[in-house]
Amino acid sequence: MLWTSVERFEVVMGDPASWAADPEGFEALLASRDIAKLPDPPIDLHKDLEDRRHQ
Known about the structure:
By secondary structure, the chain is mainly alpha-helical. It is about 20% helix and about 0% strand.
């Protein structure tokens, strides 16, 4: 049997959070298809981190 392994290194420079490129267009797309956005699920963050999903 052949065993292989993989090591992965990920480097992030700057803020790894995503951002909306066209929030008005996205809202219009959702409305045109009668799609309701679901609320973000609760997450447990380290005490030094803030939840920035709604900024």
